Amino acid sequence: MDRDEMNGDLRDLLQAAFGEPPHQVTVAAVRRRLARRRVMEAVAGTAVVAAVIAAAIPALGGVFGSHGPGAAPGASRAHRFIAYVANTELGTVTPIRTATNTALSPIKTGPNPDAIAITPDGKTAYVASYVYHQGTVTPIRTATNTPLAPIKTGRSPAAIAITPDGKTAYVANFDSGTVTPIRTATNTALSPIKTGSHPVAIAITPDGKTAYVANNGSGTVTPIRTATNTALSPIKAGPHPDAIAITPDGRTAYVANDVSPRGTVTPIRTATNTALSPIKTGGGPGAIAITPDGRTAYVVNGTGTVIPIRTATNTALPPVKTGGDAHAIAITPDGKTAYVANGSRTVTPIRTATNTVLPPVKTGLGPGSIAITPDGKAAYVANFLQGTVTPIRTATNTALPPVKTGGNPDVIAITP
Predict the structure, then answer these.
(1) Contact indicator for 16, 8 with CB cutoff of 8 Å
(2) CATH number for the segment(s) 76-107+160-414
(3) Each residue of 35-59: pLDDT tens digit?
(4) How far apart are CA 319 and CA 323, in angstroms?
(5) Which of 154, 186, 262, 348 is the most exposed place for a label (fewest CB within 10 A)?
């Protein structure tokens, strides 16, 4: 079954379940919510069909019906780390105080919050609500955890990235084929920038001069010059680019092309905006993380493996076996360990020096997103199907008691 047939079957399935096409639950949204797009590969199975319906129902609620709070002056940095967790079913964000692993009062956002980005100074979290008719982004003032007035974007905002100077947030609007810049000083939306079809991921160079937007529907990447908010000529990637990451030196953007079983990664030379030869990964690569020294890009393959790529030569190294349905990855600030979320209720640590796996760490059901504190002491894993977040102590790779959040926690961002 090819991708178009699979997408059609999913739309038919959702229409049969709810009587009409649910506009707020696009195929892309379902793909993210179900093990970050991996379960769809087996859509012909009845168990998967049931899972798709189960995952889509909560998201239909909208159709039918740096500094944590109270941080004392002189408090240690650890006490100021707050993890913000988007709960798609409830239309809320749950802040978690990482020093004590306690959940604070939920913050109301728009329906189906599906992406979060935090300004470099840690003062504001921007939360995108994945809504087809009228997408919005809700700014949250982190000092008080109060939501500000929502900002209108395009349809189905699916990703956010903020410039290193914190002045502009760029929002990829999946169903509008645009990117909305937001001036963070005033929280005002600027004129939308036309991209390719179905922009689904965005990354900004370390110097802040260029935002790169992966267009899932058109197989391209659109560079945006941030000084003028103008789109440059699109760069051809592989079919269905689904994730993008940029090396710390800003010289290369790596784009994961999610086409199982012939997935690839396209390197882009940012100085000239030219695509280099694709790197074969196999599987359906859907997430990328790059080590802080820039030497290795780790590509989550969706088939229970991670492919390391040596960036100096753009060569794929032998695959690292993790767990079934691997779909998310985060690397510690010291670059020593990569943590991979698996659909099998586990997280697999990988020792990057040798690319060897350590014993898996048990989490809750449906781990779908992972983030690491800036001091590297803890990883936080959102368990989509269990309404919890599992903290992991990185020094010992032990899971701590789960923190209750809300319905279907989908993404996590932690204050700097």
Answers:
(1) no
(2) 2.130.10.10
(3) 333 333 332 333 333 333 333 333 3
(4) 12
(5) 186
